[in-house]
Write a structure and sequence with these properties.
There is one protein chain. Helix content is 49%, strand content 14%. The strands form four sheets. Strands 1-2-3-5-4 form a five-stranded antiparallel β-sheet, sandwiched between helices. A four-stranded parallel β-sheet has the order 11-12-10-13. The chain is of the alpha/beta class. The radius of gyration is 24 Å and the shape is globular. The longest helix is centred in the middle third of the chain and has 29 residues. A hairpin with a 2-residue loop joins strand 7 and strand 8.
């Protein structure tokens, strides 16, 4: 990889190379720092997938869609370099800022650009260049439904009539695979794949695109579990999408709405399958923590739409809503405005000693981060902290911090769940490293985020060493 980068940059010096954390794929991403610029390098041995990405990029860039510029492609197509669009995604924005008017406008801007992308494909896009499948037909839908069955239903040991469910899946796949109008389908059009730069949306990770119904991408965006868009937003944004797309093509609104209801369900089931594979089997924290939100989406769907033609699937969804959701709710009881539990999470330096429990309990958890590779040994990171993106990228890609935090979560879950149920008032969680600057800071912030996402607990966060330096949070 480095030889390709050096050839691309020529005499421009490389200041730093930062591996980026993996998401749901096996592609390897790296951020390259030069004197005043940054670039993203992608490495993948899946040449067919790379070719799809490169083809779509060229085609849609010529249509002036907001995509990253392709700057370099290696002769064997295993490495390519693209424009760096930054770290701020639409999902990051809605989680950070909430459901504000400004965020709503970003969603509308994203839908505007989605319409352009979907419809411009009919101006010469060669769908034979698609990687996974050329169209979202019966076979593609059935694959998604079976993905849900094998990686979610079976992993949770949900009892169902196999013959009846298979027959209903066949009918559902046949129905969903025939919805019109059919244009370009992004396939994974969700907030993580929409980068926000200068208050404008840019699209990434569209290599799985294919020909498919317009409704699917809208369903993917509006029903993303982590975004938790309120129902009133979903309706407003769907109405906005239909109004805007109707300016370009004839739209049978009744038929469109019928297709949308079914495709939302297909998408929600596919997502639960992904959560099962990536979360339960591969133990990736983000996917595990998303399961309760994914189940909440199923409950919302059942309260909004009907499934009379598929009685076995309807019974299964009821089981998910009433039993599996309760299982996760029991495992992860949510804090309410009446909850008494106050959680203090802090980073410290072992050179200055373990902090005392000021609550008077005389206890709490203390986790030693010094077994994790220390970014502070690297010259570029010595003046940075565990909140700086290069340090975060290093910890997430070059160390076992994810394994460490997985076990930390398993340990603290026992106390958090018990304390919430029994009305206890105080819990202290401390992370120590050599200087209280990198590893402990990162772990403190990560666990604070985990408690918020998993238990709706807003912890008090202290970074003892950094705050003593008048660090501005």
């Amino acid at each position: 990889m480095q030889s390709y980068v050096e050839n691309f940059l020529g005499k421009e010096p490389i200041r730093n190379i930062e591996p980026l954390a993996k998401a749901g794929s096996e592609r390897k991403y790296t951020r390259i720092y030069t004197g005043d610029k940054t670039y993203i390098v992608c490495e993948s041995s899946n040449i067919r997938e790379n070719e799809s990405f490169l083809y779509f990029s060229k085609f849609f860039k010529e249509k002036q869609l907001p995509l990253p510029e392709i700057l370099f492609v290696s002769p064997d197509k295993t490495v390519y370099i693209v424009e760096d669009l930054g770290n701020d995604s639409l999902l990051d924005t809605v989680v950070r800022e909430g459901h504000t008017e400004a965020v709503l406008q970003l969603y509308k801007k994203s839908l505007d650009q989605l319409i352009r992308m979907q419809l411009s494909a009919n101006e010469g896009l060669d769908f034979s260049k698609c990687y996974a499948a050329s169209s979202f037909d019966r076979e593609a839908v059935l694959a998604d439904l079976n993905y849900f069955k094998y990686y979610f239903l079976d992993l949770h040991k949900v009892v169902y009539n196999k013959i009846a469910l298979n027959a209903e899946f066949e009918q559902l796949a046949k129905t969903a695979g025939a919805f019109e109008p059919s244009y370009f389908m992004f396939r994974d059009f969700q907030g993580r794949n929409i980068m926000i730069k200068n208050n404008e949306p840019f699209f990434i990770d569209y290599q799985g695109g294919m020909k498919g119904p317009l409704q699917y991408d809208v369903a993917s965006l509006l029903w993303q579990a982590k975004a938790k868009l309120p129902a009133i937003w979903k309706k407003e944004l769907m109405d906005y999408y239909k109004k805007e797309v109707s300016k370009h093509i004839m739209l049978d609104e009744k038929q469109f709405d019928t297709g949308y209801s079914i495709l939302v369900l297909v998408r929600l089931l596919q997502v639960l399958g992904a959560y099962g594979l990536r979360g339960l089997i591969e133990q990736r924290a983000h996917f595990l923590s998303s399961i309760p939100s994914g189940l909440a989406n199923i409950s919302e769907w059942r309260s909004t739409f009907t499934l009379k033609e598929y009685p076995e699937l309807d019974r299964i969804l009821q089981t998910l809503e009433e039993e599996i959701s309760r299982l996760y709710a029991k495992q992860n009881p949510l804090a309410t405005e009446n909850s008494k539990l106050n959680v203090l999470i802090q980073s410290f330096s072992y050179k200055q000693g373990i902090p005392e429990d000021i609550s008077g309990n005389g206890g709490g958890f203390v986790f030693d981060c010094r077994g994790i590779l220390n970014p502070g040994r690297i010259e570029e990171y010595k003046k940075q902290t565990g909140r700086d993106q290069p340090v975060i990228d290093y910890l997430e890609s070059q160390t076992k911090v994810d394994v460490f935090l997985k076990h930390v979560k398993g340990i603290i879950d026992i106390s958090v769940q018990d304390y919430l149920e029994r009305g206890f008032e105080n819990l202290m969680i401390s992370f120590g490293c050599t200087g209280g600057q990198h590893r402990s800071v990162y772990c403190t912030d990560a666990i604070a985020k985990y408690l918020k996402e998993t238990y709706n607990l807003t912890a008090t966060v202290r970074h003892i060493v950094q705050e003593a330096k008048n660090w501005v949070n």
